[in-house]
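Here is an idea for our session: we take a single protein and study its fold together. Start from the sequence, derive the backbone structure tokens from it, and show both lines together. Once you have written the record down, we can walk along the chain together:
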Amino acid sequence: MARHSRLLLLAVAAVLLLHSSLSSAAAEDPLIQQVVGRDAEGDEPGLLSAEAHFASFVQRFGKSYRDADERAHRLSVFTANLRRARRHQRLDPSAVHGVTKFSDLTPAEFRDRFLGLRRSRGGLLAAGSAHDAPTLPTDGLPEDFDWRDKGAVGPVKDQGSCGSCWSFSTSGALEGANYLATGKLEVLSEQQMVDCDHECDPDEPRACDAGCNGGLMTTAFSYLAKAGGLETEKDYPYTGASGTCKFDKSKIAAQVKNFSTVAVDEDQIAANLVKHGPLAIGINAVFMQTYIGGVSCPYICGKHQDHGVLLVGYGSAGYAPLRFKEKPYWIIKNSWGENWGESGYYKICRGAHAKNLCGVDAMVSTVTAIHTQKE
């Protein structure tokens, strides 16, 4: 009986703590309030409530619309996304979901404009372009690890309305590998890959990297190995649209030595991350449109990857009050700007309870750079 009472007290305390944390967040940003509270009628946001949130959203993110009809349509989409954020909050209680800069987009519009990861029907790899990473020892791995603290991660960027996520994942991994090889962090160009990379899967010739229409990190690594390397962001700046290739070999700043794919095994992923630097990964982004912060650990999430991101570290304990445990998590750098998520980053839980959650463990590749003398 005493044990039952203690468990009940723990449950009540945890729920109160979650409510307190979300209420605190709502106090800091009224845009979160629609996730914390509900209208008297139940789950449906009232018209006045939705209109008020929409007005705040428009002002905060500098939105503008063509005419009154377009504004009315976006208000309708926004209202539907309020409901969607509430559903995500229930399915993913250890994270905070609410209004983001994408809240006036339908799920289909969001996928078309801000995702873009291509997956070959034949599998992850283009045949002959990469090999499986060797098995690494996993004894003695640090409990927590973050390449940002070690200077191997560049600034958060914004891909804009272009399905070029794969190029940001690729450039981020090569930035880290080049840092390990040279001791210098070079911020590399995504636009070079958007304009110049048309590498195809040999097993599926029509599946090619295609700028804002999508691509794949391993075929991008293959392109870079063949082209000779990647220019800096400064020399080949990002425009957010596919254009004519302007690659200049004399301005190459980082070169691919080799690349490989990592087994669907969290320990091997962690070992490769620690040894080789940030990893290019794919993920199912269904919960990311409404994500504001915390450790995402949804009860249900598809494993089909549709978004390319960069794995930069991991943590041993992220608090998840409704599950009465501390959850380990991956730290992921995204390419939607610093005004999304946790200053541009996403955390998703890992561990025995969450193997390959949202497909995060199943499309992982590592790259090494050619060593050059540090200046």
